[in-house]
Amino acid sequence: MSRTHRLFQLMQALRLGPGPHTAARLGEELGVSARSIHRDIATLREMGAVIDGEAGYGFTLIEDNALPPMGFRDTELEALVLGLREVELIGDPELATAASEALRKLQARLPPRQAHRLRHAVLAPYRFERPIPPAISAQDLRQAAWDEVEVRFGYTDGYGAVTERQVKPLSVVYFDRSTVLIAWCCLRQAVRVFRLDRMRGLEVTEQSFRPRRVPMLREALEQMRQEHRQEHRQQDRQAAPRTRQ
């Protein structure tokens, strides 16, 4: 393996997982000594890569705009383009704009052949109808989930009843026809799903629930999966033909 190729492979290895990556493990993966890994890390840093860590602790790659872009396989590029164009169609206004900007930046940094492939991609998503736009700032809601702080809003359910809710936002999910928030509802003391187009007057509070969002979301999704399986089993029993006594 040439040193140039090894540096490329080392960058790829550093990108996988959150780190830190020890020199011993990286060396074993690339078939070189830990000392060679230390030298290669120093070279990558001189080239502009921002790599945190040191010998004996491990190394973590921190993305840096000064770093030349890594190459994509054609199938990886098609997956990126398809995903970003899907976000353009189903995302809220801020997210859709961000996807368009990301596509332009990606095209500007690609080699000419792949830039041409991006412009004339074979794969494309299509929606006959776009999701109902949110009635609140989805960007503020996403940030509240990242910051792990509770939010308040007015909510109108499917029957027209209006309630005031304070919730712990866990995840925003984009469906075909609507965008929903999975949250722990302080009013109902249970996991609830809220459509963003039925929410009004979003207010971000200072009530933190850090660092519980990830385990709470994991439990919420498992609960929803169990309820879905139970509902399907009940439907199957009702649909099963009755045997004669």
Number of discrete helical segments: 8
Structural class: alpha+beta
Order of helices and strands: HHHEEHHHHEEEEEH
How much is the radius of gyration in Å?
Answer: 24 Å
Span of the ends, CA to CA: 75 Å
Number of strands: 7
The low-confidence parts are: none
Biggest sheet, strands in spatial order?
Answer: 6-5-4-3-7
Helix fraction, binned, reads 40-55%
How many strands, what sense, and barrel or not for the largest sheet? 5 strands, antiparallel
Q: Strand fraction band?
A: 15-25%
Shape: globular
Mean of residue pLDDT values: 88
Q: What key attributes describe this structure?
A:
245 residues
Structural write-up:
A hairpin with a 3-residue loop joins strand 1 (50-54) and strand 2 (58-62). The strands form two sheets. Strands 6-5-4-3-7 form a five-stranded antiparallel β-sheet. The protein starts with a helix and ends in a 6-residue tail after the last helix. The chain has helices spanning 3-15, 23-30, 34-46, 74-90, 93-109, 112-119, 138-147, 213-239; strands at 50-54, 58-62, 149-156, 162-174, 179-185, 190-195, 199-208. It is an alpha+beta fold and 245 residues long. The chain has eight helices and seven strands. The mean pLDDT is 88.
